[in-house]
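Escalated from tier 1: heme C holo job.
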Amino acid sequence: MRNALRSKVVLAALVAVAGTMSFAQNGEATYKAKCQSCHGAAGTPSPAIAKMLGVKPTSDPYMQKLTLDQVESAVKNGKGKMHPVTGLTDEQIKEVAAYFKTLK
Ligand code: HEC
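Tier 2 regenerated the structure:
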C-alpha cells in the first residue's frame, strides 16, 4: 500500500516537471521561429540589427523592467518599430513572452 502511494507521488512530481519543461521548450521554439531574427539567439541582437532597428538586448535595464503583460502586448500589438508578430495563438504568445523574460 505504502509503495503504491509513493509511486503515485513520484508520478505526480514527474508530470509536474514535464509540464513546466514543455512550457519553456514551446516558448523557446516560438522564440527561435518568430523573434530570433531580430532579437538574436540569446536576446542580444546583432550589431547591424541593433543599429538599424534600435532593438535593445534583453540584458538592458529597460528590457529587464518590462512586465510579462508588456512583452505580450509588444508581440500582439507591436511597439514602435516592431510590428505585431502574426501567426501565434494566445497560448504561444504567453509561452514566448515567458521565455523572453528568462533571457538575461
Ligand atoms: C522584424 C523584427 C522583429 C521581430 C521578428 C520581433 N521583434 Fe521585438 N522588437 C523589434 C524592434 C525593432 C523593437 C524596438 C521597438 C522600438 O522601440 O521602436 C522591438 C522591441 C521589443 C520589445 C520591447 C517592447 C517595449 O515595450 O519597448 C519586446 C518585449 C519584444 N520586442 C519582444 C519580441 C518577441 C517576444 C518577439 C517574437 C514573438 C519579437 N519581439 C519579434 C523587432 C522585432
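Residues 2-102 form a domain with the Cytochrome Bc1 Complex; Chain D, domain 2 fold (CATH 1.10.760.10).
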